[in-house]
UniProtKB/TrEMBL annotation:
Its main location: Golgi. It is a single-pass type II membrane protein. InterPro entries: Glyco_trans_31. It comes from Ladona fulva (Scarce chaser dragonfly). The keyword Glycosyltransferase applies. One of its GO terms (molecular function) is hexosyltransferase activity. GO terms for cellular component: Golgi membrane. It is found in: Golgi apparatus membrane. Its EC number is 2.4.1.-. GO terms for biological process: protein O-linked glycosylation. This is Hexosyltransferase. Belongs to the glycosyltransferase 31 family.
Length: 277
């Protein structure tokens, strides 16, 4: 994709399933909104989260939603709409769900928060193959309540674009010509203060499109609007050994399949584990 393709020319605004009830009173009084990017067909992953760490969405100050785009398969669309009617926690954007559209998906997520939930304090963007330690995350937000215009996560510093066209992460010189990316927080999970959302959304629409959503949103766009990116060691964003202290100390563990969510949930709740957090 050439560098002169502006994001707004690819983007479809709005949400045909808005799930606005996820955020009563525009998020006033809400501490944390967790938005989980998911493929339409990944119902098992969503169900595992609902039955484990997604349970924290029952708190008055926490909400958990699942962010999808459309599927070309009509049966998948029908099943997703039934799931949405049952749980009321699915937000669907107005474009095709695909890997190359992940940047559009995060842009749509920012639009949704800007429209329906601007008064929430913090937003966690994460994926459906992640285990999130919500109690630890809430403690983290408590420790950073006064911070402004910041994105927290696993900071990638001075990463070099991959020019090998066989790579999933290939970026051509036309898409991005510099030799080093701006520092960014890696995509599996990052936390935004809500005062970042409007500027990130508006600015993203006017930039040349890059399909690497974390580089684009938390690197290029965040740099343009002078939003801090801060490394937080609790954001592991990788697969780690499933020992109890790893689970209890970290906020985000990556590459978790849906049966493993239950194992990690059990370890998180095990009161016999004593760790120096």
């Amino acid at each position: 994709m050439a560098s002169d393709v502006i994001t707004s020319s690819l983007y479809a605004t709005g949400h045909d399933i808005p799930a606005a009830d996820l955020c009563p009173d525009a998020g006033s009084g809400m501490r944390l909104l967790i938005l989980v990017t998911s493929a339409p067909k990944n119902k098992d992953a969503r169900m595992a989260i609902r039955q484990t760490w997604g349970n924290f969405g029952a708190r008055r100050d926490v909400s958990v939603g699942y962010f999808v785009a459309t599927s070309a398969d009509l049966e998948t669309q029908r099943l997703l709409e039934s799931e949405s009617a049952l749980y009321g926690d699915i937000i669907r954007a107005n474009f095709l769900d695909s890997y190359l559209n992940l940047t559009l998906k995060t842009t749509s997520m920012l639009e949704w928060v800007d429209t329906y939930c601007p008064k929430v304090r913090f937003i966690l963007k994460t994926d459906d193959d992640m285990f999130i330690n919500v109690p630890r995350l809430l403690t983290f937000t408590e420790e950073h309540l006064g911070e402004k215009r910041t994105i927290y996560g696993r900071l990638a510093e001075r990463w070099i674009p991959i020019r090998d066209s066989r790579s999933k992460y290939y970026v051509s010189a036309k898409q991005y010509n510099d030799s080093v990316f701006p520092d960014f927080t890696t995509g599996p999970a990052y936390l935004l203060t809500s005062d970042t959302v409007h500027d990130l959304y508006e600015t993203s629409l006017n930039k040349s499109y890059l399909p690497l959503e974390d580089v684009f949103i938390t690197g290029l766009v965040a740099q343009d609007v002078k939003i801090r990116r801060v490394h937080a060691q609790e954001f592991l964003n990788q697969r780690i050994p499933f020992n109890g202290c790893n689970v209890q100390k970290g906020i985000s563990i990556h590459r978790i399949n849906f049966p493993e969510q239950f194992d990690l949930w059990k370890r998180l709740l095990d009161g016999r584990i004593i760790c120096n957090v």
